[in-house]
Amino acid sequence: MTKDQLIMGIETSCDETAVSIIKNGREIVANVVASQIESHKRFGGVVPEIASRHHVEQITIVMQEALKEAGISMDAIDAIAVTEGPGLVGALLIGVNAAKALAFAHQKPLVPVHHIAGHIYANRLVKELQFPLLALVVSGGHTELVYMKEHGHFQVIGETRDDAAGEAYDKVARTLNLPYPGGPHIDRLAHEGSPVIDLPRAWLEEGSYDFSFSGLKSAVINTVHNAEQRGVVIAPADLAASFQESVIEVLVKKTKLAVAEYGVKQLLVAGGVAANKGLRTNLEKVFADSEVDLIIPPLSLCTDNAAMIAAAGSVMFDKGVRAELSLNANPGLDIEIFNEI
Ligand code: KG4
Ligand code: ZN
């Protein structure tokens, strides 16, 4: 009998301090997330300096909590996987340095993980992956279609040219005076309204899998300002529904075209916006009768967590990917550099 593999994952790229331990790449043994959302709310977005301070305060507590939840000591851990980037540099540095200190003190291998690879691998905690596959990544910082021919190999076939989907959600929510993060509020409101307001869809050039959401965001802001100036009342629920319909229509249509062109076996959905009820229902409907196996993680694995970092870390560890103790945070890390390893 071979020994179980236990990987500790550490994630601090934005506003969640998270540590998780997973078994054999797929089974969650511990998953602790300390969210800072309350501290950032009054500023209407994540304040990098505040995020870093919270991570410093939380990281050791969260690590100890994860080991306690798993009922193990560091001796049992095979490797430590940490988010190297992308993200806020000050926030990333806390996780990277904590991981390095732990790896050095306990003489454990250190595995660098790309945050988006983590979001994609959250799906492996739901179901074993089958290649080739396509991942629709929709988070606060990223909107991408990623093709994977095998484990640990990522090819970005389309990405946003301006705002990420989550970013557009958060900015529109701000215009409607909704709290941060705005995505869940717009999602809830959208179900109370009707998509009666005409808003643009950015299809871009024929055959392009790229996205653009800044025009849509500006259209929403202009609609609100024009209405205010003319003293016209627009129902926020109708605006939310119209905005959500525009985002989902473009995401789903481009994903469907890419699934057909690339002939994939699975479609994975990843990132915070994958928690969107409208997007989930729409994708389920579109792929209900298709051969493609659609996987959407539960809400807790869609938003930032460390189980996804440990899941991606497990695959990278098996591939032999290691970081030196000189590892630095890389806020602009490219997902495709891992393909050569
Ligand atoms: O992946 P994530 O937790 O952090 C990043 O890596 O960016 O994504 C956070 C984003 C935020 O923009 C948030 O508003 C959005 O995900 N989000 C949603 C929903 N839940 C979270 N957007 C739309 N609908 C939701 N239900
Ligand atoms: Zn994320």
Task: State the gist of this model.
The protein has helices spanning 37-41, 48-70, 89-106, 115-121, 165-175, 183-190, 214-230, 236-262, 277-286, 299-302, 307-318, and strands at 6-11, 16-23, 27-35, 79-85, 110-114, 133-138, 143-148, 155-159, 266-270, 293-295. The protein is α/β, with parallel strands linked by helices and 341 residues long. It has 2 domains: 6-121 and 302-340, Nucleotidyltransferase, domain 5 (2-Layer Sandwich); 130-296, ATPase, nucleotide binding domain (Nucleotidyltransferase, domain 5).
What report would you give on this structure?
With 341 residues, the protein is an alpha/beta fold. It folds into 2 domains: 6-121 and 302-340, ATPase, nucleotide binding domain (Nucleotidyltransferase, domain 5), CATH 3.30.420; 130-296, Nucleotidyltransferase, domain 5 (2-Layer Sandwich). It is built from 11 helices and 10 strands. It has helices at residues 37-41, 48-70, 89-106, 115-121, 165-175, 183-190, 214-230, 236-262, 277-286, 299-302, 307-318, and strands at residues 6-11, 16-23, 27-35, 79-85, 110-114, 133-138, 143-148, 155-159, 266-270, 293-295. The chain has a 5-stranded mixed beta sheet, sandwiched between helices. Strands 8-7-6-9-10 form a 5-stranded mixed beta sheet, sandwiched between helices. α4 (115-121) packs across α11. It is globular. The protein starts with 5 loop residues before the first strand and ends in a 23-residue tail after the last helix. The structure holds 5'-O-[(R)-(carboxyoxy)(hydroxy)phosphoryl]adenosine and zinc ion. 5'-O-[(R)-(carboxyoxy)(hydroxy)phosphoryl]adenosine (KG4) binds next to α5 and α6. Residues 115, 119, 139, 271, 304 line the site of zinc ion (ZN).
